[in-house]
Specification:
The chain is α+β, with helices and mostly antiparallel strands and 339 residues long. It has helices at residues 2-17, 22-29, 33-41, 49-58, 63-74, 142-156, 176-181, 197-203, 207-210, 214-232, 237-248, 250-267, 301-304; strands at residues 162-165, 171-174, 278-282, 290-297, 309-316.
C-alpha cells in the first residue's frame, strides 16, 4: 500500500509539474479520462511494460525518471528496448544512469558496492553552537576562526568557482566565481547554493539550469554521500531534516529508495567520491555556456580533520570559449572570471 501511494504521488506530482490536467494526459495516452483517472488514483493494478512506457512518454520523463518509475511500479528495470522509437534500428540508451568520465568514475565492469565511511564529525567544527542542539558542532574556537578567515581570503583570490562546506553541506564560504556561476538562480528559502549545497542540488527548481544532467551526475552522487553520512550518524538532526524533505518529495524519494541502490550497484563505491569527476555544467557567461567541469577536492588536513570540504570546479575549456586573439603555446587552463 505504501508503494502504491508513493506511485500515486509521483504520477500526480509529475503531471502537475507539467501543468497538465487529467484530461490532457488521457489525450496523450489516447485513453479515456476515466481510465487514466483510475491509473493515477489506484496504481496498485498490474502494470504492463506497454502502459509504463506510455506513461513515461506522456509525462515527459527522462530515462532516469522512467527507470525509477519501473522500479517503483514493478520492482525491476525497464525492458532493454523500452525507449526505442518504432522502426528504429539503433540500440536504445541504457536504462541506468550515464557513466561520467574522470578518475572517480573508472570504466570497466562494475564492482560490488562497498559502504563508504562518512567523514568524522568536526572536532572544532564557523559559528557558535546552537543551544537547541547540545551535541552540535562548536566552530567558536579562536584559532579555527582565524584559520577560516585566512582560508576564505585565499579562496577569494582564486578565479575558479570554489566553495567550502561542512559535513552537513552548510556553506561556510563561497568565493566570487562560485557566486557568479549561480547568479541566475531565483530565491529559495532553504536551498540557495551559497547556503546549503546539498539542498540546492536536490530541491532548488533552478538547479538544473546550471548543473547539467542534474539527476545522474549531481543528485545521485550527493544522495549516496548523504546515505553514508546518515549511516555513520543517524541521529544528526540536520541530516535527518534533509532526509525528511526527500521523503516529502515523491520523485526525490523514489530516487533515494529505488534509484540510488540500483545506481550504486552499477557504479561501485568509487562513484560516491566527487574528487576528479567530470560533470556537465551550464555557465551563465556566454563565453563558456554549455561545458564541463572537473571537481577537485583540495581540502587541507587542518580543515578535513574538522569535517570541512573544499570543492573547486575547474571549467573545461571548449573551442568556443577561446578568444580568437589568444595565441597558445603549451596547453594550459584558463581561469574563470567572476564577472
Amino acid at each position: 500500500m505504501l508503494r502504491a501511494k508513493r506511485l500515486t504521488d509521483v504520477l500526480r506530482r509529475r503531471r502537475e509539474e507539467l501543468g497538465l490536467s487529467v484530461e490532457d494526459v488521457a489525450a496523450r495516452l489516447d485513453i479515456s479520462t476515466v481510465a487514466y483517472g483510475s491509473w493515477e488514483r489506484t496504481p496498485a493494478q498490474d502494470w504492463t511494460d506497454e502502459k509504463l512506457c506510455a506513461l513515461v512518454k506522456a509525462l515527459e520523463m527522462s530515462d532516469q525518471q522512467g527507470g525509477w518509475l519501473f522500479r517503483l511500479a514493478v520492482d525491476r528495470d525497464p525492458p532493454q528496448a523500452w525507449n526505442r522509437p518504432v522502426g528504429a534500428s539503433r540500440p536504445a540508451p541504457p536504462s541506468g544512469p550515464a557513466r561520467p568520465s574522470g578518475p572517480a568514475f573508472p570504466s570497466g565492469p562494475a564492482r560490488p558496492f562497498t559502504p563508504v565511511t562518512a567523514p568524522a564529525p568536526p572536532a572544532l567544527p564557523v559559528e557558535p553552537a546552537d543551544p537547541s542542539e547540545p551535541d552540535g558542532p562548536d566552530h567558536s574556537d579562536p584559532e579555527t576562526q582565524a584559520y577560516l578567515r585566512d582560508f576564505a581570503a585565499m579562496m577569494d583570490a582564486v578565479p575558479l568557482p570554489s566553495v567550502l562546506f561542512d559535513r552537513r553541506w552548510d556553506v561556510t564560504h563561497a568565493n566570487h566565481a562560485f557566486e557568479a556561476l549561480f547568479r541566475g538562480v531565483g530565491p529559495h528559502p532553504t536551498a540557495m547554493p551559497a547556503q546549503n549545497f546539498l539542498r540546492f542540488v536536490l530541491f532548488h527548481p533552478d538547479a538544473g539550469t546550471v548543473l547539467g544532467d542534474r539527476e545522474t551526475s549531481w543528485c545521485l552522487p550527493l544522495l549516496a554521500q548523504l546515505d553514508a553520512a546518515l549511516e555513520w550518524d543517524p541521529e544528526d538532526r540536520v541530516l535527518q531534516a534533509i532526509r525528511d524533505d526527500i521523503a516529502d518529495d515523491p520523485i526525490m524519494d523514489v530516487a533515494y529508495r529505488c534509484g540510488l541502490p540500483h545506481w550504486m550497484r552499477a557504479m561501485g563505491a568509487a562513484a560516491v567520491h566527487h574528487d576528479g569527476a567530470v560533470r556537465p555544467l551550464n555557465h551563465p557567461d556566454p563565453r563558456w555556456g554549455r561545458t564541463e567541469c572537473r571537481i577537485v577536492d583540495e581540502t587541507p588536513a587542518t580543515l578535513q580533520d574538522r569535517g570541512f570540504t573544499r570543492m573547486t570546479l575547474v571549467l573545461r575549456e571548449t573551442r568556443a570559449a577561446v578568444p580568437p586573439d589568444v595565441r597558445r603555446g603549451k596547453p594550459h587552463l584558463r581561469a574563470v572570471s567572476s564577472g
